[in-house]
């Protein structure tokens, strides 16, 4: 699933190309993706803003009926395909399944796609972003200027949840997913399975610093990338995520994989778990 740095890059990419354009047509190819409102009714509206909310994209549209927000939740395998010239009709382009196509008044536009088996991307049309439950429930965003150490301390306080899982909990930290949770924990030298409530003051400091730095660096690195390049750029920058069997870039130990609760964590035993490895 795209995480905050990639969605931020998508928001900036669309802001530069779509803001100030009218939606000539919005065709929903797979109706089940619509979770609220009637997105097709945004046709004729003017796109006046594109923002990121956690891992979701918020496309602001103004029309005669008033302002609206098209909220895209990517699910696990959703993505965006940009067209300088939108193909006629709603024929598929590329390997992913076409879910919806947005045509702009200058002939450009974009597709919402999903290449996963469940087609979990969703699209909501609402008058206020907080009308989407996933937006309303978002916790503090580590990339926001106002994010503080106290936000981290509050998130871990009393929580017996494993630290990697807590980092991915959007009610605790907005925008972090599977990949960047691995990267943040590696930078912070913290085990992915330690209970959050056990962290001491110095460990909270490291977690705060790492979350801010890892995500800020990734946002900067993705800036200016086109949507089709973002996934590969993200993978290339990972230091431990999806690199089991490779050497840790810090200490040289072999990166390990640990599976728990149906998920996988990639980590350095020397840097993060005092040498402990999975059985």
Automatic annotation (TrEMBL):
It catalyses: Hydrolysis of DNA containing ring-opened 7-methylguanine residues, releasing 2,6-diamino-4-hydroxy-5-(N-methyl)formamidopyrimidine. The keyword DNA damage applies. One of its GO terms (biological process) is base-excision repair. Residues 2-94 form the Formamidopyrimidine-DNA glycosylase catalytic domain. PROSITE patterns: FPG_CAT (PS51068), ZF_FPG_2 (PS51066). PANTHER family: FORMAMIDOPYRIMIDINE-DNA GLYCOSYLASE. It comes from the Bacteria. Residues 239-273 form the FPG-type domain. It comes from Microbacterium lemovicicum. One of its GO terms (molecular function) is DNA-(apurinic or apyrimidinic site) endonuclease activity. Its cofactor is Zn(2+). Belongs to the FPG family. This is Putative formamidopyrimidine-DNA glycosylase-like protein. Keywords: DNA damage, DNA repair, DNA-binding, Glycosidase, Hydrolase, Lyase, Metal-binding, Multifunctional enzyme, Zinc, Zinc-finger.
């Amino acid at each position: 699933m795209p995480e905050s740095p990639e969605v931020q890059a998508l928001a900036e990419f669309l802001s530069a190309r779509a803001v100030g354009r009218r939606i000539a047509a919005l065709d929903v190819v797979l109706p089940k993706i619509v979770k609220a409102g009637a997105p097709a009714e945004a046709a004729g509206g003017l796109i006046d803003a594109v923002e990121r909310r956690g891992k979701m994209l918020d496309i602001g549209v103004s029309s005669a009926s008033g302002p609206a927000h098209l909220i895209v939740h990517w699910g696990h395998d959703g993505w965006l395909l940009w067209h300088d010239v939108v193909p006629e009709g709603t024929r598929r382009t590329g390997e992913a399944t076409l879910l919806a196509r947005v045509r702009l008044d200058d002939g450009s536009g974009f597709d919402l796609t999903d290449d996963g088996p469940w087609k979990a991307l969703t699209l909501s049309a609402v008058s206020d972003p907080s009308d989407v439950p996933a937006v309303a429930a978002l916790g503090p965003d580590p990339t926001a200027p106002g994010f503080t150490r106290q936000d981290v301390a509050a998130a871990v306080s009393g929580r017996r949840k494993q630290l990697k899982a807590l980092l991915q909990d959007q009610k605790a930290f907005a925008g972090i997913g599977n990949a960047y949770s691995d990267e943040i924990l590696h930078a912070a030298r913290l085990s992915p399975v330690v209970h959050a409530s056990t962290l001491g003051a110095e460990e909270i400091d490291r977690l705060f610093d790492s979350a801010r730095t890892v995500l800020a660096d990734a946002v900067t690195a993705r800036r200016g990338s086109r949507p089709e390049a973002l996934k590969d750029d993200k993978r290339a920058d990972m230091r431990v995520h999806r690199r089991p069997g490779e050497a840790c870039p810090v200490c040289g130990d072999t990166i390990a994989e640990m599976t728990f609760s149906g998920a996988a964590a990639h980590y350095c035993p020397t840097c993060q778990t005092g040498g402990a490895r999975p059985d």
